[in-house]
Amino acid sequence: MGSLDHLLAALTPLNLLLALAGVVAGTVIGALPGLTATMAVAVLVPFTFSMAPAAALIALGAIYTGAIYGGAYAAILLNTPGTPSAIATTFDGYPMARAGRGDLALTLACLASVFGGLVGAGFLLLLAPPMAAVALKFGPVEYFWLAVFGLTLIASLGEGSTVRGLIGGCLGLLLSMIGVAEVGGDVRYVGDFKALLGGIDIVSALIGLYCVPVLIELVATPVRHLEAANQVAGFRLREAAAILARAKFNLARSAVIGTVIGILPGAGGSIASLVSYSEAKRTSPRRDNFGRGEPDGVLATEAANNATVGGGFIPTLVLGIPGTPPDAIILGALLVQGIRTGPTLFTQQGPIVYTFVWGLILATLIMLPVGLLIGRFAFRSIVAIPKAALVPSVALLTVLGSFAVHNNTAEVQQMVVLGVAAWVLGQLGFSASPIVLGLILGSIAEAGFVQGHLIGGAKGSVWAEFLGRPISQGIMAFILLGLLWPWWIKRRGVPQEVPHD
Amino acid sequence: MTHFNRLAAAALLAATGTLAGAAGYPDKTVNYIIPFGPGGESDISARLQEPVFKQLTGQSVAIQYKPGAGGAAGWSQLNGMTADGYTVMGTNLPHIVLQPLQKDVGYQTDDITTVYWFHYTPDALLVTADSPIKTLKDFIDAAKKAPGATTLSGSGTNSANHLAQQQFDKMAGIKTTYVPFGGTGKSNAALLGKQVSGSWGYSTVQIQLGDQVRCIAVAMEQRHPKLPNCPTFKELGYDLVGGAYRGVAVPKSTPADVQAQLAGILAKINADPGFIQKMEDGGFAMLNVGPDKMAGFMADIKARYEGLAKEMGIVKK
Amino acid sequence: MTEPARRPDLPGAAGSALMLALGAAALYFAREFSDLGAVFPRAIGAFLVGLSALYIVLVASGRTRRAAGPAGSHLRRAGVAAVMLGWAYALPALGFLASSAVAMTLLMLLAQHDRWTPRRALGVGAGAAAVLIGLYTLFKLALQVPLP
Fold this sequence. Notes:
heterotrimer, A: mainly alpha, two-stranded antiparallel ribbon, 1% strand, B: alpha/beta, D-Maltodextrin-Binding Protein, domain 2, 2 domains, ten-stranded mixed sheet, 11 helices, 10 strands, 21% strand
């Protein structure tokens, strides 16, 4: 088990320097829309070939966790998720920014991310093997129900009509089917556009659907984009601390949700933050304020998505199966170094693994001061820049970002077309988030469904397969709870807590 | 003697000229595009090539990912990329033969100019270590008892894994259900989690997952040096040899001398003992098909896959 | 809290009509898919058609509410959309720096409501140029992204 030696090994000046550099680089890269954590890690891998394995892991882990946190900046300040895992942060982060509480949102995001990251790393340190066993119990059917759970969030996002939200969700699901089907190999809805063979790229779609409408609206009026924080200098830490104290349970639950979903290969930060947001909203006395600038919303999403970093390493290191795309890259980097992951890793290469985990914990702690500082800087810049300079700069970011994903001008075009369409749809009353949810969850839901169908058919009963598995039943219970709870609460007439600023 | 010396001198000069690079290739970073997501066999083998490439040429390789449509997204765009030798792409068999046969994927097999095939991952039939199935005979018996009930995970539809399942089902006269997953990682997870009875993977998967899985048989001529306990299909009486082949391709209009130089570098990497060791440790099987053998190899392989595809009924055009 | 008057949500109905058409198209094109590959498209297409029809019915029966239209200049908004579209399609033709410089200048003009003073023009222009050069270097050199 991790003992003092490993902690001390992690505390060398080189490792600390790598952790610091990694967190800074990761945060900056994650903040730029279009640059994902995957990209950040991929760019750094060649540099790690000449490093010792533990140091390499620490550097990569630091970048990864910084990037996941950094995605919150653009989410809060520009309503554009910097990484897919920050989608749910826009729900409440941007409204808070519009209301003049952007710096508070950034501080909360930082604190929540650090907390979530520590919980995830803690699970990795202490409970990796049993957690990995839990991960394996999730089969295709569980993934399907999990995706459905994420989709039911659409119903509870409640921006106006539920029916319109569901329609948007279906549109997103339809968009996710464009391209070659993962199971079955059909070429669907591509027509003559060969560029669409790979399907609609999620990252450029995110940028287009969220950021372009913001840009279009920005030029419409001379009003400043974000109000500068009125009087308060500093990080508003006192306020943040008070909110945190009140939200202890929310934070803990969100971090656990994030870790658990992080251990599921292929799930990732976006799903984790969506599920924890949904649960936070369902159980909060201020649930009607979610989506309008409720701090608990930001706390829930940011804690969850940083917990996936530590959680994702669990199947990666214990089973040799990557939990998230950055984990896959890290696996490759380790292989080049001659490190074979899998059950023998913890026993044969224990020192490397434990030193790395302590390093990850240290990197997460370093993220606290670093994140607050960078956040303050980002906030001041965005607030101070006049619109005439802000609009072209952000537009440039969207173009660069959507290009950089796959070095493809076609994706820039996709991004803009989707973006303009999203603005039009927004004017007609269909907001972007349900569409995005459908787009992301569509492939997971479909793959899970078809695979479950094949397996169930082979076993003799498809119905038994989908409805008879214990974990699935648990998820289904949550789905029903999520759908019925708000209605039941209203019926009982429980008084809503009025949010006070 | 003088004649010989002159010949030798000329040869030496020519060799030095080639090494120095008539056009100075490469004199900057080469973009190596993998048409799949990170972490797969294509990615790992490319990552292993990276340091050796740098050592041999002094230039680095920038690995990028362009996943989509099982590789077709990348291959359909290959010939539109800059053809100066600084953009290369990974290619895979059976994909580039099978995909255009089934549907319009935006490219034809002959559009892809592969410069070198440098390894293959032999198909392997895997079960979990605690599975009651211990030998190939156990597997066939279990499949015969309950047709269609044996589920086998694999990566992708109409991929090497799928092909192996179809071929072997036919050879052994059994019926199993193939459950496609989006990538080796997910297929492995399903296997380990016992969501399926077994998995059609590669020798690399056996090495990667170690003691958690048992390799029932592998599709090679002789047993893999790192898998002494895994019998070959051939020795058990089934002529199944093959797997997924991987190579490096360039846009069609890349100049011939650049192609030759690239092939030369790749051949040198393939001869590097350290590289060979790491590849074999990972479960890969080395292969050397360069420009001189390319035409024959491709003709052979195309005939083989086209025959299989017709049998499997996946030729839709 | 007073409820806004119940005006029929015509924009929403229009959008729903569009969605209905999309759903129908999805169902139509799904005929050619294999069995397994058609399950989801058919299901989602059906949902789209059903939900859109439902919403149109809701609008027609006066059960919807219409939000107020957006304030501000529609011309500028359209301008941004046009510039972004042009930018995206000009990228392969004109190259990155050229198309970006033009597009960014146009956007600057669209975003500025107050009058331009020479000082302001210089300041904003220099700032935007700095951002362009800075990000270009970051992406091209540090991140090794081959910009057109």
